[in-house]
Amino acid sequence: MERTVVQGRNDQHEICVVGLGFVGLTLAATFADAGVRVLGYEQNRNACQLLNQGQVHFYEKGLPEILNQRLNNGLTITDELPDTLPAVVIICVGTPIDERTEKPDLRQLESAVNAIATRITAETLVVVRSTLAVGTSRNLILPRLRERIAEPLLAFCPERTIQGKALEELRTLPQVISGVNEASVARARQLFDKIVRQTLTVTSLETAEMIKLICNCHTDLIYGFGNQVALMANALGVDAQEVITTANLNYPRPDLSKPGFVGGSCLSKDPYLLIYSTQQHNYTHRW
């Protein structure tokens, strides 16, 4: 299979997005559509080839159109990192849970960090977009970057979009910004100001990591509670739809969710990431 390779320096690109799944591809497309010159790196050669043909492997309204408009016109997709990276590198790789141990499987993250660590300079801003257990940016990523650069620029800026509305929400949702130092925060804020209406700067990498986890855990909890209401209603012989719909009508409190399937790559793993985070600090969950 023919490989798409970018040789040498890449001053023609302003950012490099590492990992072109849902999180990475929607972000790369949004930046490219805003006029930012983007290099998208996807190590899976088959996926890379399909993307270069304009084929998207998941549903996202408007994404195929942007991809076809911007391919080689602001967005370059490759399966091999160049020797020298653009000024900003954004990590968007998967962080699944090991089903056997219920602990984070960080192999994709470690591979991505190792690949970029040998290519960064003191001026390279590394932005982590992947969902992480609290403390991972500081305890795993930062030390690896410091093997190359004494004081690297590192930011954690979580993705909080929903599939199907990601292109809209990338521009409309507030973007949480955190960094290992003031310079990292300033650079990250400058970056996301190109596409978002509002940025929210928090005091630490760990704060931003936890914000992402509690957002998804809360969503999981809300959906799960709606299903529990339906099960209880069924046991009590009443109509769950009537119960929830009437309870919500003109009532100024958070809506009860209607029963339905709960799943997806985020909601099925992020509670485990939060549990793992607190276990590292001897916090015991009470169920």
UniProtKB/TrEMBL annotation:
InterPro entries from the UniProt entry: 6-PGluconate_DH-like_C_sf, NAD(P)-bd_dom_sf, UDP-Glc/GDP-Man, UDP-Glc/GDP-Man_DH_dimer, UDP-Glc/GDP-Man_DH_N, UDP_ManNAc/GlcNAc_DH
GO molecular function: NAD binding; oxidoreductase activity, acting on the CH-CH group of donors, NAD or NADP as acceptor; oxidoreductase activity, acting on the CH-OH group of donors, NAD or NADP as acceptor
Residues annotated as domain UDP-glucose/GDP-mannose dehydrogenase dimerisation: 206-285
Coiled coil: none
Pfam families: UDPG_MGDP_dh (PF00984), UDPG_MGDP_dh_N (PF03721)
Gene3D superfamilies for the chain: NAD(P)-binding Rossmann-like Domain
Domain UDP-glucose/GDP-mannose dehydrogenase N-terminal, residue spans: 14-186
Domain of life: Bacteria
GO biological process: polysaccharide biosynthetic process
Family: Belongs to the UDP-glucose/GDP-mannose dehydrogenase family.
PANTHER family: UDP-N-ACETYL-D-MANNOSAMINE DEHYDROGENASE
Protein name: Nucleotide sugar dehydrogenase
UniProt organism field: Dictyobacter kobayashii
